[in-house]
Structures are given as structure tokens and as C-alpha cells.
Amino acid sequence: MPGQESKDARQAAARVIEGVWRIESARIIGALARMLRNVGLAEELAQDALVSALERWPEAGIPDNPAAWLMTVAKHRALDHLRHATLQRNKEPELTYEIETLLRDAAPDLEAALEDDIGDDLLRLMFISCHPVLSTEARVALTLRLLGGLSTDEIAHAFLVSEATVAQRIVRAKRALAEAKVPFEVPRAGQLVARLASVLQVIYLIYNEGYSASAGGDWMRPKLCDEALRLGRILAGLLPDEPEVHGLVALMEIQSSRARARLGAQGEPVLLLDQDRSRWDQLLIRRGLAALERAGQLGEYGPYALQAAIAACHARALTPEQTDWQRIAALYDALAQLMPSPVVELNRAVVLGMAYGPALGLELVDALIASDALRNYHLLPSVRGDLLARLGRMEEARAEFEQAAALTNNLRERALLLARAQGCGEKAGQGDDGL
Predict the structure, then answer these.
(1) InterPro entries, alphabetically (predicted)?
(2) Does the pLDDT at position 97 exceed 50?
(3) Which of these, 95, 143, 165, 233, has the minimum number of CB atoms within 10 Å of its CB?
């Protein structure tokens, strides 16, 4: 039937366009931003090319090179915009000549000229979307939008906020970049380290939200983990001599290797020491260990490489009993020196409790409670509950797990904590019966 064939063609084209856009949108936006020096306008014109594809491909057929088609149309739109802007300003011919000279890389071979700079364009786009002039929330949203190719709806769903909130963050971010006249360039050597730290932080935040969702009904959000890992791999390819880039990639690769084992049959969380390690992805572990080795070859371990080294200790242990807790404790000591924070100290307390006994871990946790540094942080009572349970103080442990459950916004995690509280209560009752 002709009507059905037309519908099938539209659906086939839409699937191809969605896949190509997810992969190529950052390259296209980056190329246009280099021309226009305006990220917001670059995205708009790239979207125009996407609309053109949605209109034309179902009728004309999918091009042999869909990515090149989108790039060509988008760049022609950018050229038309610049020429139109020149005429609107009613400038003399020399200004038109100036613009044409500036854009001479676009002619005569549009795609070839673009490919020459494509790595630089992606790198520039990363530094723009993660610019310190933006708030952390804006950096995350803009990065997922421009470099991840996610829609505002997808970003909103991932972070459990309204689509309008995400849209506002993105609009304000673009406006802030334009008003600050942020140059579309990779920072110079003297600024690179500080700016790179911002890029790495954004990728790290995206990954962490995917790995342990802060709220909602899912323990993990794999799409965010995948996007962060993809961005990290791209960045490692663009900055191959930066050790902390490889350190972050190593961390994400190794952590991602556990994904299948972190969820039970009903989507419930499975804690590290309870996981079936035969389900860990050995390919991701090998990739992570290779990235960690590369980081070590390039320089001393930074915070991300140290965390990757900690993850590697778990990855190398075939069973929980084989875990080298003393090695992990030493790595956490180094991390605490390099990146002191209450959260690092809390994790260090867990590890010292495993390496040298729960009493030592509890001592460190109680010091954190006294400092009031982690008020309302649900993992503080959760860790304390675990240490108390290992010391046989079940009733106290039950109260800590209940407090942790009340503080978390993740429904899966709350259920796990309440189950642990119930288990401690039952054991406490059994102990009472034996007195």
C-alpha cells in the first residue's frame, strides 16, 4: 500500500536521522561555532539542517553519507547567515570580502575542510560548554545537549527535574557565554590545567549521577554513564598527553564493568561485596587498566587516577576475600592528601574499617559526625550502621540505617537501607532472646 510504504520510509529515515544526530551533532555544532563564534546560533542552524533531513530524506531517500549531508547543509546555512548579517549591517564591500576570506576554508570542498579541524572543534566545544562562567548545573545540561546530543526531555528525565528547568538552564548558559564573549578556543597552556579540571568535573558529575542516581526509582541511569564514558574517551583522544584525562576514563571503564552485577532481578541494588563477579565485564576492566597504565606513564597519579587505582584493586580481586584492603587504604591516604574532603574521609573510614577493623572505621566516622561536615548526607549514617553491625551492635545499627533511609531521595536505595535496618532489628531480637 502506498500510504504504508510512505509511513515506513518516514520511520526508516527518522531512525537513521536520530542515530546520525546523536553521533554527529557535536561535530556539526562545533564546526558551526568555529565559523559563527556563537554556540547558541550554531545549535539553531544545526537543528535547521536536522529539520531539512526530516523533510527531505523520506521522499528523496537516505544519502550515501548522511553525516556529510547534514554537515554540508548546516555549514551552508551558516554561510548564508553570515552573508545576510553583512548585508543587514549595510557595510562596504571590503567587509564582505573580509568575511569571505575568514570563511575560505569552507570552499570549494566543504566536507574536506571541515574534517581537517574536526578534532579541534570538538575540543573547543568541550571547553565552551564546561566554561567556569557557567554554574555547575548549566555546564552539565549544556554539555549533555551539545556534546551528548540529548534532548531537553532526556536530560530532564535523567536528573528528575522539569523539562522547562533544563530548557531555562540551557538558554541562560548560551546567553551567559554570549554576554561574556567567551572565545571559541582551547585555553592556552597557562590556563589549560584549570579549565581542563572543569571539563573533567562535568564528565565526572554526569557519570556519578548515572552510576548512583541521587533520586527517583532507579538505582542506575545507564544512559548517563554511557554518555560520560563516550565524552571521556573522546577527550582522551583529543588530549592524549594529559594523565588525568586517562585517569578519569580508567575510573569510568572499571566502574562500568560492574553494571550488570549491580542490579538484581527486580532492579534492586546489589552492593559491591555481594556482587557476582563473574558478571563483571572483563573487556571494560582491561580497557580501564590500560588507561590507568597510560596515566601512570604520563605522570604522577592525580585524584581521578587514584580513584581508578582503587577501583582496579577491586577489579583484580576474583572474590571479595582477595581484595587488597591495605593497598586500597594506602591509596585513600594519598587521595585524602591530594583532595581532602569529608566524603573522601568517609570512604577512607570504610576502607580502614575493612583493612584494620570496624572499630577504627567507626572512630573516623564519629569524628566526621562531630565536625558536622556531612549533615543530612545519607551515606554517613549508612556507613556508621554497617560498622556498628560488624561490631555486633545491632540495635544501634538499625537506628542508623533507618536514619539513612529517611535522608536518601532514591527509592531503590531507601528500600535497601530499610531492609538492612530490619535485618539488624531481627538479629538484635535474637540476641535478646539468648540472654
Answers:
(1) DUF6596, RNA_pol_sigma-70_dom, RNA_pol_sigma70_ECF_CS, RNA_pol_sigma70_r2, RNA_pol_sigma70_r4_t2, RNA_pol_sigma_r2, RNA_pol_sigma_r3/r4-like, WH-like_DNA-bd_sf
(2) no
(3) 95
In single-letter form, the type of residue at position 133 comes to: V
d(CA 40, CA 69): 21
Question: Given its phi and psi angles, is residue 101 left (phi above 0), alpha (psi -120 to 50 degrees) or beta?
Answer: alpha
Asked whether 275 and 256 are in contact (CB, 8 A), the reply is no
The CA distances from residue 282 to 258, 289, 317, 322, in Å, are 9, 10, 12, 17
Closest CA to 310 of 292, 284, 290: 292
Please give the Cα distance from 284 to 315 (Å, whole number). Answer: 10
> DSSP labels for 319-375?
SGGG--HHHHHHHHHHHHHHS--HHHHHHHHHHHHHHH-HHHHHHHHHHHHHHTTTT
Distances (CA, A) of 145 to 124, 166, 313, 396: 15, 10, 35, 46
Q: Is the pTM of this model over 0.85?
A: no
